[in-house]
Structures are given as structure tokens and as C-alpha cells.
Amino acid sequence: MKTAGIYFHIPFCKNKCNYCDYYSLEKREKDIPGFVEMLMREIELSAHEHGKNWQFDTIYFGGGSPALLTPNDVNNILNKLKHHFNISKNIELTLEINPGETKKETLFSLKELGVNRLSIGFQSLDNRLLTTLSRTHRLDDCFMMYEDAKVAGFDNINIDMMYNIPEQSLDRWVDDLNTLVKLDCDHITIFPLTSEKGTPFYNQVNSGEVKLPGSHIEESMFTHSSQLLSINGFIQYEVAHFSKPGKECQHNQHYWNLEPYLAFGPSAHGYNGKKRWWNVSSLDEYLSALAKNKKPVSDFETLSYSDRFNESVIYGLRTNEGISTAALQKHEHNSSIESILKKWGNYLDISSDAIRMKPGHFHLADEIVSEMLISDC
């Protein structure tokens, strides 16, 4: 039986960060009970279509700020899943959480319910930069949250960090990573801060109020991260994801391996191996549809041959698994692919079974991928 993942998008935030372009809402916590009720209805409506096809071995609560759910909410959602779907006994169950938002006793409760992996959004260990990012927590909250999680029994913890922040120096960034290494983290994910249309941060950058570091600084931050974390025992198993051996995020690997996953909640995207679908990006529309026993799907797309090929290239080259050589040899543009591989050969590890980025060169993955993509005739 094929394995698959389940993603929940929890669209509530206490305070929305100025750079965030994910669908989320501030000051709507009063709607959480009704949302949880409709979320469970969405599970019921999806069960007849997907209930027996796959065994689900990962569940991921993202957002937004999913830690705004109560442990009882999480328990009800999990019980509903177990009733309708084939849930693995050895499941990886991740919940995103922000420093300063959750008490230690709540972490104990979540652990007892089966949550066995946390993803904590530190973003920075510099209070000044946290203010730039409009984060509401402080440095001490990061350390307290991490310590509380360890005391509660969590032994699989990811830390999210951001680089390329205005006025962030390379030295400051390296210091932050060294601090995380000393904390003995299991997993670190690094993201460059980008200016996304429609966000307050985008307006700040456009008006000249703040200025992003230059591209050479961003690249230097990335390459230093790669080297520092690799030296300290982390595996760079995807461009932005570093883990200790055995602590890779299994849920994300479903995405990168183009394996199926269901998704629940407003704006959530699902995939069954042939088509993708996505829910309405509106809490009110989501609740209204489900109140009428209608699935809240906004639209879908059936993937073409070129779509599937391009995604295998995009995701493959970003991971340490690489792109299957057999997959490349199958398609009709093989001669052009060969010339691209020759051009970039110094940065690629080309073997009989796969093509991978050489260590230290993951920053070139997107540029190489862009030359390998094909379009439908």
C-alpha cells in the first residue's frame, strides 16, 4: 500500500508577521471552535474518496499558528482521522509552534496525544532583527520554548531560521547558527527573507524604508550555513533543510518525492499523483461551504507529462537524492538535457542511477533547474 501524508492549514495568528504571504488571519480566535467542527466535516467528506487508497504515515499541522488549537481540538481531529483513514502506528506527527505562545503543560498534553515532532519558529536570535520581522517573541522566549519542549519529552525538534534580513550581518548569522549547534538541535531549516507582493514588508522595501542585503551577501549567508552545519554533523538533505541522521522530515519528503498527500483547511493544497487541488483561500467561504456539506475546493489541475517531468527535476535536484537518471533518459529532449549536464558538470555528481548537486553547490540548484524545464508542445 502506498504511503501518503496529511497537511492541516490552521489559518489563525495572534499577530501576523509583516513578511508573511501565507493565508492567515489575526484576531479571529473566536472562530476556532466552529473551524475545528468544519475541519472534521471536511475529513468526513474526503474519506469516501481517499480512505482506503493509502496508508498515512505523516501528519503536519501548519499555519498560521496551529498551536492556538487546544489539546482537546487536536485530540478530536486526530480521532476523526483514525476513524476514517488508515493511519500508521509509526506516524510522524508535526506541529508548528511559536516561542512565547504555548505553556509547558500544554506541550506535555500534546506529547501525550501523539504529537512527536515540533517545528519552532525562532527566525532570529537577535531581538533587533525580530522587531524588524514584526515577531512578538524575544530571544529568551526561544530558549525557554526549546527547553520546555525537551522537558516535555520531544526528541525531534526543528528550528526555523531566516537570513537576508535588513541590517543582518554575516557574522551575526553565523553566530546564530553556532548557538543552535550548541543547543544540540535535531533539525534546522533556513529561509531567505523575501519581499512578497501584498505584504507590509513588500511596501516597506518598495518605499525604501528598509533595504534587503545584496544578493552576494544572501549567497554568502547560504554557503556559510551549508559549510558550518555540515561540519557539525548535519545532513543537507534538501536545499534549505538540515538534519541529524535519522531526523529528516518525513512529511516534506512526501512533497519532494511527488508522493500523495491530503490537505485540509482554507488554502490547503492536495495531490493524488495525477492531479492537484486547492481549497478556497477564505475562512468565511470555507466555513460556508462545509456548513452546506460541500467540499471547499476552489479548483484543480491535472498534471501533464511536462508538469510531472518538471516537478521531478525541480524537487529532485533540490534534494540529496537527486534526479533519477532513468527519468531523464525517457523523455524526448534527452539531447538538450545532456548538453545542460555537460555545461554544469563541475557542480553535479552524475552517476548511473541519479544526478545530484555536489556538496557546497546547492545554491546553484534553481539556476540549473531553470535550464532543464520543458514545456508542452
Task: Provide a quick synopsis of the model.
This protein has helices spanning 32-50, 71-84, 104-113, 127-132, 139-151, 170-182, 200-207, 215-231, 250-256, 283-291, 305-317, 325-330, 334-343, 365-372, and strands spanning 2-10, 12-13, 25-26, 54-63, 86-97, 117-123, 157-163, 187-192, 235-238, 241-243, 261-264, 269-271, 275-279, 297-302, 323-324, 348-350, 354-357. It has 377 residues and is an alpha/beta fold. It starts with a strand and ends in a 5-residue tail after the last helix.
Number of domains: 2
Described by the principal axes of the CA atoms, the overall outline is globular
Which strand order spans the largest sheet, edge to edge or round the barrel? 9-10-8-7-6-5-4-1-11
How many distinct helices? 14
CATH topology type of the largest domain: TIM Barrel
Q: What fraction, in percent, of the residue positions are helical?
A: 40-55%
Distance between the termini: 35 Å
CATH 2nd-level architecture of the largest domain: Alpha-Beta Barrel
| Class inferred from helices and paired strands | alpha/beta
CATH superfamily of the largest domain: Aldolase class I
Query: Could you tell me the strand content as a percent range?
Result: 15-25%
Just give the CATH class of the largest domain: Alpha Beta
Biggest sheet architecture: 9 strands, mixed
Please report the total strand number as a whole number: 17
Radius of gyration: 21 Å
Provide the residue-averaged pLDDT.
94
Unreliable segments of 5+ consecutive residues: none
Summarize the structure in words.
- With 377 residues, the chain is of the alpha/beta class.
- It folds into two domains: 255 residues, TIM Barrel (Alpha-Beta Barrel); 55 residues, no CATH class.
- It is 41% helix and 24% strand.
- It has 14 helices and 17 strands.
- A nine-stranded mixed sheet has the order 9-10-8-7-6-5-4-1-11, with helices on both faces.
- A hairpin with a 3-residue loop joins strand 16 and strand 17.
- Helix 1 packs across helix 10 and helix 11 runs antiparallel to helix 14.
- The protein is globular, with a radius of gyration of 21 Å.
- The mean pLDDT is 94.
